[in-house]
Structure formats: C-alpha cells, structure tokens
Amino acid sequence: MRANFHIKIRISEEARMDVREDVNKISIRAAEKIPLPDNSCNVYEEMKGGRVECQIRRNNKKQQSSAHEKLMSRCLRLTTVCLGLLCVLLMTAVTLLYARLTEQSNLLQNTNTKLSYLEKAIQEGWRAFNSSLYFISNEKRSWTESREDCTERGADLVIINSREEQEFVDSFCSSKDASVFIGLTDAESEGIWKWVDGSALTTAYWMNGQPNNGGWKGRQDCAVTRSEAGKRWNDKPCQDLLYWICEKKLIS
Ligand SMILES: [Ca+2]
Ligand SMILES: [Ca+2]
C-alpha cells in the first residue's frame, strides 16, 4: 500500500510539471498575440527584446503620436479657416443678393407708381407724348385764367420745343377747330417772345404775316396755335376767351 501511494505521488508531480510547462507555453503564445498598446511593450517583449529596444519603440510611438496630433491640429486649423472663408463668402453673396433684390423691388415699385399715375391721368383726360402729359380744355378762358387752371392741375401752358411736339399738339387740338392758347407771350416786352418757364423762343411756327401785334386793332401779346396745316401760330389778345393746352412732365 505504501509503494503504491509513492507511485501515485510521483505521477502527480510529473503531471503538475507538464501542466506548468503547458501553461507557460500557452501564456507566451497568448502574450505574443496580444496587441501592444501604442506606447508600451508587454512584459514578455520587454524580457525578450530588452529594455533599450522597448524604450526605443516607446519613443518612436510617442513621436508618431505627436506628429499625428500636430497633423490633426493643422487639419483642424485649416478646416476652421476654410469654414470662416465660406461664411464670409456666403455673407457677401447674401448681402449682394439682398441689395439686388431691394434694387429690383424699388424699380418695380417705381414702375407701378408711374403706371398708376399715368392711368389716373389718362382717366382725367390727359394724353402722353414722349416724357410729358397734355390736357386740352373743354371750355374757353382768358390766357391768364387758362394758365391758372393748368397750375391747379400741377402743370403749365404747353411749351413746344420741337416739330414732333408741334405735330402732336396739332393732332391733339384738331377736334377743337379753333385757336388754342399755348404758353408763349410777349407781354413783358413787345416783340420779345418768351415761354412760361422764362426760356426764350428759338424755333417758331408762326403763320404768314404773324405775329403782327393786332395791327391797327390793338395789342396782341399771347400766342395761340391752330391745327390747320400752315396756319399754326398767331398772336391774339390775352383777354380773348379761347381753349388752352396744359403740359406737365411725367414723374421720373
Ligand atoms: Ca405782342
Ligand atoms: Ca396776330
């Protein structure tokens, strides 16, 4: 019984040795397979390769980590700068777009105001030609009263600056078949004709033999026009009761 007991003990010790060897082998294999932390060696590698080699590896990994951090920092700064520039560009674009829209809106509003003004004027009997509106009366008054009526309408007696405007006035007053006052007078100084805005007469459309200041009949200081061809301007007494034509500029 004692011999058998020793045999069992010896067998158990051998088994334990084998087990220890197997455990060591497994541990070494496991240690070799464990991935290293970024900046350290494991115990086995430190024992196997030596402290110096491990320190070199640690330093290399630290340097790599430092370089990586610098690179990331540069990328972050570059990204921040790019985002800043993008914000500036967007703000500039938005500002320009807003200014353009405001300009277009003002232009549209101005156009609508002009159209409303023109529509109202036409309903009141005005007619548009080039940059002016014209109104012909349906009643007869003296030259001074005619001018007062034009002033109340925000206008003045017509000033004719070109042949085209004279032809328009001819067509406009053709329905009256009568003399019509225009904004031309020599009341201040006989023979010196001036428009109602104070400007001097440069191009005239007088009928033959006019102006004659009335000849022997008396003083004629206010100009009229007629629509018949070749009969246009004549000077008449300002107290005569006649039709008249007002003119006012279109709003700009
Ligand atoms: Ca005269
Ligand atoms: Ca005359």
UniProtKB/TrEMBL annotation:
Top-level taxonomic group: Eukaryota
Region forming the signal peptide: none
C-type lectin domain boundaries: 129-247
The UniProt record lists the keyword Transcription: no
Database matches in SUPFAM superfamilies: C-type lectin-like
Keywords: Disulfide bond, Lectin, Membrane, Transmembrane, Transmembrane helix
Annotated Gene3D superfamilies: Mannose-Binding Protein A, subunit A
Pfam families, alphabetized: Lectin_C
CDD domains: CLECT_DC-SIGN_like
Record keyword Transmembrane present: yes
Gene Ontology molecular-function annotations: carbohydrate binding
Segments passing through the bilayer: 78-99
PANTHER family: MANNOSE, PHOSPHOLIPASE, LECTIN RECEPTOR RELATED
Protein name: C-type lectin domain-containing protein
Organism, as annotated: Pygocentrus nattereri (Red-bellied piranha)
